[in-house]
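Late entry, fe (ii) ion complex.
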Amino acid sequence: MTRIIQISDPHIVPNGQLAYGQVDTAAALASCVKTVNRLLPEIGPVDLAIVTGDITDFGTKEEYQLFHEIMEPLKLPYRAIPGNHDNVVNMRACFSDQSWMPSTGPINWTIEFDDLVLIALDSSIPGQAHGHLSEETLSFLVNTLERQNGLPALVALHHPPITTGIEKMDIQNLRDSAKLEAILSGYPGELRLICGHVHRNIVAPFGSKICQIAPGVSHAVSMDLRPNAPNCLTKEPGGVLLHETRAGIVTHHIPTGQFPGPFLFYPDG
Ligand SMILES: [Fe+2]
Ligand SMILES: [Fe+2]
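Prediction complete; structure with ligand written out below:
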């Protein structure tokens, strides 16, 4: 069985600052690391953590360094892809010693396990909030899927190609997604698309496959489905996803932080 933890949208800001004047994103990521480490004996072994973009809020070297330091105690190897808040040049420099980080071009990578392949794609465009997959990235996806003989697959990218009803996020989703839909729908095996960006746990169909959006690790985008809703964040509990190959790909939502329990349902038997 392969298990992957998905951490999304940490939005690390310079040391001592609050994101949007409201959110201590460094504390939230540190709490996430603690939660995952604490739960590992109960949910593990876990093979890898993937951070699905918006690692930093402004894409600065200082923010990547702080992210790196906060993730250091995580008792798992991790890899990452960029989101619209990232800077590919600074992100590449921060992880240049990692074998998975390409030295040029989009930050695409793949890792093959016995019963699962994880394919991670760079959907970021410098200076833009919405996402796009380049021809190079789509070719990387096609070539990787062709080698798998229908092995269950997780395909990760920051920007979801679907709409959620949260208008201010939907206008920044993945554009030009028809080719991606055709590639994924044509894959003969089980395939799950996993994304970030919306900071909410949302599941929707994408062609013949399932698109799973992860919650943010700190703040959420407000649950407001009205037309012209204001662009707001909410300090809901952060969370991560655990994807595992059981009878098919099973996804669990794990809130991060410390909560009372566990308590036996029937302590007296
Ligand atoms: Fe984000
Ligand atoms: Fe984003």
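The two ends are 32 Å apart (CA to CA). Will revisit in the morning.
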